[in-house]
Amino acid sequence: MTLHVETGTDNKILRTVSAPVEKITGELRMFALDMVRTMLAEKGVGLAAPQVGRNIRLIVCTLNPGEKDEAYVPMLNPAILEKSDKAVLGEEGCLSLPKTWGQVKRAKEITVSFTDFNGKTHTIELEDFNARVVQHEIDHLDGILFIDKAKNIKENNTENVTNI
What we know:
The protein is α+β, with helices and mostly antiparallel strands. The chain has one domain: Peptide Deformylase. It is 18% helix and 37% strand. The protein has 2 helices and 8 strands; from the N terminus they run H-E-E-E-E-E-E-E-H-E. The protein has a 5-stranded antiparallel sheet, sandwiched between helices. Strands 4-5-8 form a 3-stranded antiparallel sheet. Strand 4 and strand 5 form a beta hairpin. The chain is globular. 35% of the residues are buried.
């Protein structure tokens, strides 16, 4: 099932800091699967639980989109442990801010820790677009929208840019 995507810069759900996930349940697993379905239906590469109405620390990301090793990765309680000093400017859009784009400076490389649905903790290093996607989604968990960091914001843009 696809879920309703919350939209708007002043949306209370999108502006609220999300609570940690305390317990992994079957319902939570189904919710994450519905998040992946929604992300794909909306042609995004990442989605955070607040974007579909729940203020919990859960994101789903497409890592290596369009590559042979493309993977949909759900992350419970993700946390950025390290960021590279090198930052890069890149164009971002967001499913919660349709037709809005902007240039956002993000760390080129990050180390992120998260729990999977088996309760196992993982620490992975990401770079470039994968790092950008995870940083964008973790911002959602902290009530931050990309426009809070963006420069050169364009609205009603019809360019073919991937929504994160």
